[in-house]
Amino acid sequence: MNNKILKIGIILLLTISVFTPIVNGYNIKNDQEESNYEISQITDWSEKAKIIASDGSAGDWFGISVDIYGNYSVVGARDDDNERGSAYVFKLVGDLWEQEQKLQASDGVAGDWFGISVSIFEDFIFVGADAEDNENGLNAGSVYVYKHNGSSWIQHNKLVASDGTANDYFGRYVSIDEDYSIIGAYYDDDIAGSAYVFKRYGDEWIEEAKLTASDRLPGDYFGISTSIKGDYAIIGAYRDDNSNGVDAGSVYVFRRIGDSWIEETKLLASDGESDDRFGISTDIDNTYLVAGSYYDDGNKGSAYVFNRTSSGWIEENKLVEIGGKPNNFFGRSVSIEKNIILVGAWGDSEASGSVYIFKYFNSNWIEEAKLNASDASGNDRFGYQISLSDRFAIIGAYGDDNGNGVDAGAAYIFESVNYAPSPPEITGITNGNPGIEYTYTFNSVDPNGDEVRFVIEWGDGHNDITTFISSGNNITVSHSWNTKGTYTISAKAEDEYGLLGLEATKEVTIPRNKALFKIHPILLWLFERFQILMTPNETIDQ
Questions:
Q1: CA pair distance 120, 130, nearest whole angstrom
Q2: Is the full-model pTM beyond 0.85?
């Protein structure tokens, strides 16, 4: 009897040494299928349009301010009509950007500088007129609000600071997001500067808060740049004196808590020095903010990227122009959306100007492309102001000479190629039991950094479409099969613009093999060879 048990043990040892193990019903080696899909991290950008004012003239400075949102763009022409100023709205119709409307203040006069700043969000356009004279005094400044009524843009409000005074230059910078807007008044209180937050109630915009730096001093220029996103407002003070030196500059972060805006932190460049003027430009999206320092390193310029973490705002990258030269003023303008940053360098190439595109990849911001106007010439100042929205970028060149005259100005619209997301990586079991719900993980990377969702077919007539998630993130979906068989899971990733990637598949067998080990041909041979070891009439002693 002991010999029989010994022989059985030998057989089992041989079995273990030659068989593929099965754990929880599926093959360990095949648990996760690796994707061989490789994508380029380069996104192509092409110039789609050069836009100019239909009635422009020499010296208008069309393009001194720009913004873009969805299918609309707006361009300011501060010096139009003896510096009364104007702003032009363009709409994407098919593949063409067509001028839809020219905006001017209903009470505008020469010298108002209407169009010095513009911002567009959904159905609202804000236009700053920071030199406008009003009840607050000469050059007190104002901002005009336009609302789209379905067919045209109608002047809806005129905003002024509740405590404004002469020479505040309220409206130098404006920014809108959802129900909030922020407006800079950088000359307020002996150029210490301030910024005002307005909140939308219905169609009306009401002043909610006045923001000032906790350590404000005359000459700081707090409010020279402003940006707002969600609960955060970012304000540049590009001539703030601090531990980095005189006019080194700083950026203040305010956070909305309830109905109050609280100064959360003051940011300085880690290697800042006197006269860098850090904070001349600012923008924020999600957890990232970017700030320009256009006088850094002999006016070559730079831009700094900060990330909001559990430990606070951390400087993550310093962006510079490769081969940059003095007076390129890299960082004079910045714009960020998702995983793309634009940085303008209007002084590049004898002030013809350029714009650099950086993309977030492998925990770093990598220079992806350099944009120039197709008809670039000296003193165009291409890149003085920029804006990014979805796959479009608008770039102002207020010094451009064209059919409208010298320094009439222009704006250029670039579009990035939309690449499809990668085939999904599908992780989950390959063998299971009927009626049991199993969870699968799906992951796809989008080359443009767009959000993705997954269109899933389970092979049994049931389908699922997930919610959108960030590129490269995991999402889990559960499913059960009710009958025996072999099923093929197929899935495609779809970006937020409706572009589908290639299909990926994973095969699942129902039911699973309940045996602890697969039956190997050698094992069958061994049992046949040693049938004498165990017969139906034998029992094992207890």
A1: 17
A2: no
